[in-house]
Amino acid sequence: MIDPQDDTSNVKSTYFEVRDYECDMQGIVNNAVYQNYLEHARHQFLKSSGLDFDEITKKGIYLVLVKAEIEYKRSLASGDAFHIESRVERVSRLKLNFIQNIYKTDGMQLILSAKMTVTSTTKEGKYIVDHLVAS
């Protein structure tokens, strides 16, 4: 269960290294690749909070991204080590925001800030969030 009020357990870090094929002709990470990084970090956040994305899906509960706000600050290049700090905040009865920042690991330079709004639905389309967040 995710507790948005608990600041100590609410920030999780996921570590990566840029692979050559993620870069565009300019030699920097393609803008679309950052969304893959952010998604993986959200899945790792859930897992470290005791919620397995695969298991949730198998139970017929679908976590859905409904809004992506990304502010690019700097670029990463092949071989760069970086990490994503993720935390969650409850927006409403039906929505959560994942607040995510990407930092280049050496020097902690901010690369990107993102706010990813998610909800979850059942197979029948019923919106539910309470199974994810402590009240």
Describe this structure in words.
- With 135 residues, the protein is an alpha+beta fold.
- Helix content is 19%, strand content 38%.
- The protein has 3 helices and 5 strands.
- It has helices spanning 7-10, 33-48, 53-58, and strands spanning 12-17, 61-72, 81-90, 96-104, 109-122.
- Strands 1-3-4-5-2 form a 5-stranded antiparallel β-sheet.
- Strand 4 and strand 5 (109-122) form a beta hairpin.
- The longest helix has 16 residues, at 33-48.
- The protein is elongated and about 45 Å long.
- The model has no long low-confidence stretch (mean pLDDT 88).
Strand percentage lies at 35-45%
Radius of gyration: 16 Å
Let me know the number of strands: 5
Strand numbers in spatial order across the main sheet: 1-3-4-5-2
What are the SSEs and their pairings?
Blueprint: H1 7-10, E1 12-17, H2 33-48, H3 53-58, E2 61-72, E3 81-90, E4 96-104, E5 109-122
